[in-house]
Amino acid sequence: MTQAPVTEEFEELLEFIRSRRGFDFAGYKRPSLLRRIGKRMQAVGVEGFDPYREYLDAHPDEFAALFDTVLINVTSFFRDPDTWEYVAQEIVPRIVFDKVAVEPIRVWSTGCATGEEAYTIGIILAEQLGEEEFRKRVKIYATDVDDKALTLGRLASYSTEQLEAVPAALREKYFEPNGGGLAFRKDLRRSFIFGRNDLVQDPPIGRIDLLVSRNTLMYFTPETQGKVLSNFYFALNDDGYLVLGKSEVLLTRSTLFTATDLKRRVFEKVPQQQIRERLLSIARHGDGKPELAPVDDRLRVAAFDSAPIPQLVVAADGTIVLANSHARRVFSLGAVDLDRPFSDLDLSFQPVELRSLIQQSIDSGQPVTVRDVHWPNVAGESRAYDVQLTPLSASDGGRIGTAISFVDVTRFRHLQDTLERSKHELETAYEELQATAEELETTNEELQSTNEELETTNEELQSTNEELETMNEELQSTNEELETINDELRSRTDDLNEVNAFLESILASFQAGVVVVDAELRIQAWNEQAADLWGLRLDDVAEQHLLNLDIGLPVGELRDPIRAAVAGNQPDALVLEAVNRRGRALSCTVIISPLRGARGDVRGAILLMEEREEAEQ
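The structure corresponding to this sequence follows.
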């Protein structure tokens, strides 16, 4: 099928998919999308994007098949062994060494498909830490947009063929029998969290030490790749590492990451120091110290109330229990607002959705920070805040609430703007100074032009490489489908050969000559005894009309009995005078029976021919 060009109808189809199923393909490369969607259109026999949109509208189940085709799930354990060997020997030991003994280790595997790469990382970490430490410290987040693949990943059950790349010792250590295959050990599987995450639309998972995203970026346009890489940068800790696929080189985001090993596509985050005020922490009870006297409680309340930044405390049941004076003034809160459900306040969802962030903080047990939230004050001026949500725990470790702090960074943003204006003025002065060195500037511009051409060529080569890798995975997926079909055909062929051998053995076992004809009296079977009687083998008579044969038997006398048998009747046996292949005259008994199919329908006739022994006189 010839690949159709990108048209307005194609873009309308993508918008239809987004509106109906919430899946946005806007950031995906168009050539790959055209190939995959075109394959699905060919499978259902639809030509044209508008007719296919109507087909999707009429057949909602087709969406699942379409997503299975577009979201290519080509993965395996220890894919590209050289990369995993480097990660196991160099990267994981660095991560473990840089951590305090009790600190958690967080890993994110994006585009995880059915989970093979996520479990590969788990095996490497378990080998480095030991199983006990692995269970205590490691969390591996495996995400994808294919819900069906995620379900298979959670089950963690794989066939023997899928586990061929896993060394025998590791396969025996980390997998257990499960039905007809093997499953990753259940006691270690608790460290894995499978969930849906759209890299283009959904926020990233935070505080990650190792982020594995292999052969996922190559499906996106350069602009979308840049956006996703920025999210990866935000997700990683300052000493975190990023592992990409062999065709992904990070050309457009070299300032965010530096290559640890370019050949194996391993990168590390370039930390950037940012000026941020530390939020005041709220005192916690039950830390092993004696209870404070009532006067100290008043001091604590006074200190909280006079804090220089707005602070709120939301109880575990979702009610707002504390708001300091700064928060009451900024957000226009009164005494009647305390002990109300926090979700009833406009503050809970605009201009930023705090309710989901509170739940995220409670679920992770870690602070959650949102940067640069623009919030209008009572005077109508827009103020910029960094919002931090910190889970609060009781002495027994149970969650009792969440503290929310708002740090005003408006002045910092103004200083940044002022700095940018100063830079602009400096650049203007510098340009005036450059007027005295026109010849040098001309040379620099020529070099810059050459460099840009080289960068453009390099990016084009990179894009071509990614496209080839995409096509390679598509071909691999198609090859796996063909192998499955070949296995089924091979099995059916073996069954057919067994049936044919069984039929031949039955025909050979008859002492009489056996001839089978179809409804048109064309010969379908002719056993060895028939060949011995009349001197012709099956190869000589196959598909020949029985009544046209000259074999020493008066076949013309068989016409009416055979026609009667084909009509479903049972004619009487005949005794015919004949001459066998040796020229000897004999009396031949011929018994004719209808040939019935599995459903009882008559498909021809069976003739049994046997030489009649004459009684001695």
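The CA atoms of residues 101 and 137 lie 9 Å apart.
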